[in-house]
Amino acid sequence: MKLDRRRFLQTTSATAAVLAAPGIIGRAIAADTIKMVGILDQSGGLDIYGKPMVDATVLAVEEINAAGGLLGKQIDLKMYDPQSTIQFYTQYATQAAAGDKADVVHAGITSASREAIRPTFDRFKTLYFYNTLYEGGVCDRNTFCTGSTPAQTVEKLVPYAMKKWGKKVYIVAADYNYGQITADWVEKYVRDNGGESVATEFFPLDVTNFGPTIKKIQAAKPDLVMSALVGGAHVSFYRQYAASGMNSSIPIASTTFGVGNEHILISAEEGNGMIAAYSYFEEIDTPANKAFVARFKAKYGADAPYLNELAARSYEAVYLWAEGVKKAGTVERMAVIEALETPVSYDGPSGKLEIEPKTHHAVQNVYLAELQNQKFNILETYAQQQPADTLLVCDLKANPNQAKFYFENGLEAAGIK
Amino acid sequence: MDLAIALALQVIYGIANLVLVSLGLAIIFGMMRVINLAHGEFIMLGGYTVVVSTNHGVNLWFAMFILAPVVVGLIGVIVERVLIRFLYGRMVDTLLATWGLSLLFIGLITTIFGAQTATTISAPLGPVPIGDYTTSGYELFLIFIAIVLSVLVYIGLKFTKLGLVARGTMQAADMASALGVSTSKVYAITFGLGAAVSGFAGALLAPITGVLPTIGATYIAKAFITVISGGAAILAGTTSASVLLGGINGIVSFGIGPTMGEVALLVVAIILLRLMPRGITGRFFRKSS
To answer: Total domain count for chain A?
Structure first.
């Protein structure tokens, strides 16, 4: 991004306006608004994920308000920045539920942050939306998880990559619950498709030297590498892999590459040919998505960040919740939950998005794409994928009084462990 | 055999990598006793200088070898003049001030360039085959640069007038001052030099790592562990600690896995500091610089 004075003033004043606006609007029409709170990291290491999510959430709320609001009321959106720190998450969650008395909260990026605040919303009976792709397994009547899970994306990615490149798979993953659980799912799908995972390696989030592992990959001679690496430090893997000339001999498929906009942090020749699967790519070629991207760029400037699943889903989840409120005719929590379970659906930039009532996850389209010149070319579309992993362990229809996170996320039920 | 050579080169590269990310900190901490918590951000600024200037058409080598050290060195001099010089001898205050500085740099870069900046560069020099294996030519080049840089710093401190004056000022500032040395200038230059070396390291790593505003945090811990384990002598300390820690990290990462590699590095550092509280050069190579 080029810096000039005007742009600088624009962004800073826009940020200031966003930060100040809820307070001002809130006071002006205090009595008759719907209160929505967002808790997403706008600073610290997770800001690469959080900032586009914040922008998308704000856009959705502004659009709904401009179109006359919900049930004739304006939505009063308040954004908190937990600064990539779990402690602030719990603090702001309590503030949102007990202080602001929010009607709905959209919050959390990492699974760790979600698990820190989910009990707070259960306790204060505050409706909660979590809009990040994650490893699956949350089973909580008060919580809606709209992002994609491994059974939706990994299940498509692994067979596709194996069919294209071969059956010997080397897995590299981030060393925390997302990476560990996702690696288990990858191993399962490799096995199910008649392949072999030759090795699985986990990396702490601050590792920047991947040389020893690259040598091991050379020694193991797999047909492809599956990556579930996370965060800025791990971007080094793809770069050092390319520097050793490996990207031209052993291709990479990833469950995470692109959601942190990694594809612009490495050069075109380093990333060409990698494949990934998510429920949204900016390049989706539908009128609804093109209009969404145009509105987003109109608001945030032509060099606004690339729109990935996290941002698009944050936007769509606001509308999904709004559909629930419209159907319920009230913002009262139980009525909205029951309305959402009917189930409601929303046709957004990613296509049709529908609540799966047993798990409170989303039935959604999944897209498989290949990276070329820092852009994703969509190769395959899989319509209306069920959250099959969470469905193995969670049935809120049969047993509504649950508020659990199944760590094992159906790994046992799926016969993985 | 091929694997042994490839692996040996990899371990040596791991060591060179530690030398690069630690040397700037070693100069600032070893010479001036200033604990610079913004060290990671100096590395990040070096990386950003390269990414931003190459995006504007600047030659990669020029950006890495000239632009990044100069830009970050100047930032270092400014930081020393407006912040650090008021805090000499106040260890805890410097700690807080430089920590604040690191947050400021992260915030400034995020505000100016956004949370991520697209890059067009990739590692130059291509892969080098070693039998069945390939290694990155650029990593071999970095090993070479780490050696050259260490030698240059050694010569600079040991055999030049500036090095002599700097060392004298650090040992006895009032005496140097009485002999007509402008100590404040020496402090500024030394700090700037440390910053320039850090910026240079960041620039060299830019083509093979992710360059993000928050990336400094991933370097600072390892740089500190290396410098503290090394002890008082800047060069002998940093290189010996890098060989020990980087070597163990590389071998264990290959043998068991990256998580255990990190654990092994930390365990060795803890044991080492338990046995030698003043670092390697507190016990060995005491006469070195």
So the answer is: 2
Token pair 């990935």 is at which residue? Answer: A308
**Mutating which of A215, A229, A259, A371 best tests the B interface, going by the most B Cβ atoms within 10 A?**
A215
CA distance B22 to B24: 6
Let me know whether A124 and A213 are in one domain. Answer: no
Q: Are A233 and A288 in a shared domain?
A: no
Domain assignment present for residue A262? The answer is: yes
Question: Which tokens in the block code for residue A261?
Answer: 């906009």
**8 Å CB contact between B128 and B135:** yes
Same domain, A101 and A165: no
Same domain, A273 and A290: no
Choose the mutation target among B2, B103, B122 for the interface with A, i.e. most A CBs under 10 Å. B122
d(CA A202, CA A205): 9
d(CA B189, CA B203): 20
For the stretch A365-380, pLDDT in tens is 999 999 998 889 999 9
Number of H helices, E strands in chain A: 14, 16
Chain A segment 173-232 residues within 8 A of B by beta carbon are: 175, 201-204, 206-213, 215-216, 218-219, 232
Kindly determine whether residue A204 and residue B258, on different chains, have CB atoms separated by under 8 Å. Answer: yes
Q: Touching check for B206 and chain A: CB below 8 Å? A: no
A182 and A48 in a single domain? The answer is: no
Whether residue A234 sits in one domain with residue A213: yes
Q: Is the residue at A76 inside a domain?
A: yes
CA distance A231 to A234: 6
Contact criterion met (CB < 8 Å) for B258 and A201: yes
Give dist(CA B219, CA B224) in Å, integer. Answer: 9
Nearest CA in chain A to B13: A211
Task: Tell me the sheet residues that pair with B129.
Answer: B134
Average pLDDT over residues A111-127: 92
**Residue B233 banded pLDDT, cuts 50, 70, 90:** confident
CB A177 within 8 A of CB A203: no
DSSP at A355: E
A48/B116 Cβ within 8 A? yes
Chain A (229-258) residues lying within 8 Å, Cβ to Cβ, of chain B: 232-236, 239-240, 242-246
In tens, the pLDDT along A246-274 reads 888 899 999 888 887 888 888 888 888 99
CA distance A91 to chain B (A): 22
**C-beta of residue A157 within 8 angstroms of C-beta of residue A383:** no
Nearest CA in chain B to A267: B120
Cβ contact B242:B18 at 8 Å: yes
Minimal CA–CA distance to A261: which of A242, A245, A238? A238
Whole-number pLDDT of residue A20: 47
CA-to-CA distance for A24 and A29, rounded, in angstroms?
9
Q: Which two tokens stand for residue A249?
A: 């001999």
Domain span at residue A63 reads 5-148+284-364+385-405
DSSP string, A67-83: TT-BTTBEEEEEEE--T
- Choose, out of B41, B214, B262, the residue to mutate when testing the contact with A (most A CBs < 10 Å): B214
Residue B287, pLDDT > 80, answer no
Q: Which residues contact A398 (CB under 8 A, 6 or more apart)?
A: A358
Q: Write down the domain spans for chain B.
A: 18-217
Q: Which residues pair with B134 in a beta bridge?
A: B129
